[in-house]
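Today's session is about reading a structure prediction critically. Students often jump straight to the picture, but the first step is always the sequence itself: look for stretches that repeat, for charged clusters, for runs of hydrophobic residues. Only then move on to the predicted structure, which in these notes is written as discrete structure tokens rather than atom positions. Here is the chain we will use throughout the hour.
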Amino acid sequence: MVVPEKTKSSTEVFSGHIMKVYKDEIFLGEKTATREVVRHKGATAILAVDEKGSAFFVEQFRYPIGAPVFEAPAGKIDPGEIPLECAKRELLEECGVTAEKWTELGPMFSSPGFCDEVIHLFLAENLSESVPNPDEDEFLDIIRLPLSEVLEKVRKGEIPDSKTQILVLRVCDILGIR
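Below is the predicted structure for this chain, in token form.
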């Protein structure tokens, strides 16, 4: 049985550049409980696939896990920016790629147990390449691989990044790559 949770009170305990953290007291039916919630501005993730069936990925060090991560290009939505604009900006910045055809694949929640971050997923096709221009605090390698090879890596559990897994599975389904 699903019991709706309603906010009784909310206290901001941290405010940062990309997120805020709240400690909320909630009504849980007849009882109350506490929830710690991360509020995030949202993000986009893109799978850019060329005419040969290869896709662009990046590898970058991710401080929270202390290791490099192989992932789809992605980034935070700026204030007032719509998800498609963000996706186009991030793909160009990180990979130096623009696309004529964009398909919105829907949203995903990165970790809904404690965070409200929504990542808007996109497929980019009919690509043109130029020079990447990553943010000054981004150090990443661009990797171009056949999508069929990446699908196999997802199946084997070799790609732990959830947004990348979901994008690869959805795009392979759309493009008929098995």
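Discussion point for the tutorial: The chain has two domains: 5-40, 43-175.
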